[in-house]
Amino acid sequence: MRGKPEPMSLGQEAVVTDQNDDMIYRFKVNSIRLNDSCPNNPLDQYGSLDPVNGHLIRLTIEEQVGDLFQSQDELVAEMADLGQGVNHFNWRFVTEAGTTTNEISTPITYNCLGPGEELPGDLGPNEQAIGEVILDLPGQTGTLIYQDPLTRQSFEWQVK
């Protein structure tokens, strides 16, 4: 769906499609939970980084990229080598009061996860992965929105 974000539930599959409605990639947010600390942060030796916005959350995501080289969408086929999939920079958060925060990938979120925990930023055609994403939110309740930068399709989850 382009335009207004499509409401999603945990474990529900979100599908990003090209102009011919063929899958570019699909993903599921399987869990959203508070992340109280970052024990794997290598920057702690220089002094602990604190969340910029206030609250860290951890998303568990599984994703799969389609056969992009076979896409009838010329732009998608041309970009197949660049990788596709869920990227932590494509999220934003809307508080219950209606305030939107676009920058929820802050320095602490880059270094919070241990080896092998982080969801890969870009996957190649026909690849799949399961991993974690850490985001820095201004509140513990609101709406988390993911928007694909190429198609502008967006999906939303309630954070409670």
Describe this structure in words.
The chain is mainly beta and 160 residues long. It has one domain (6-159): Immunoglobulin-like (Sandwich), CATH 2.60.40.1240. 6% of the residues lie in helices and 37% in strands. It is built from 2 helices and 9 strands. It has helices spanning 74-78, 107-110, and strands spanning 6-7, 13-17, 23-34, 55-65, 91-95, 100-101, 128-137, 142-147, 154-159. The chain is globular and about 45 Å long. It starts with 5 loop residues before the first strand and ends with a strand. The mean pLDDT is 91.
Going across the biggest sheet, name each strand in turn: 1-9-8-5-6
Estimate the strand proportion.
35-45%
* CATH second-level architecture: Sandwich
Structural classification: mainly beta
What is the number of beta strands?
9
Largest sheet: 5 strands, mixed
Specify the helix fraction band: under 10%
Task: Write a brief structural summary.
By secondary structure, this protein is mainly β. 6% of the residues lie in helices and 37% in strands.
Task: Tell me the layout of helices and strands.
Layout (H helix, E strand, L loop, with lengths): L5 E2 L5 E5 L5 E12 L20 E11 L8 H5 L12 E5 L4 E2 L5 H4 L17 E10 L4 E6 L6 E6 L1
Parallel strand pairs: 1-9
Antiparallel strand pairs: 2-3, 3-4, 4-7, 5-6, 5-8, 8-9
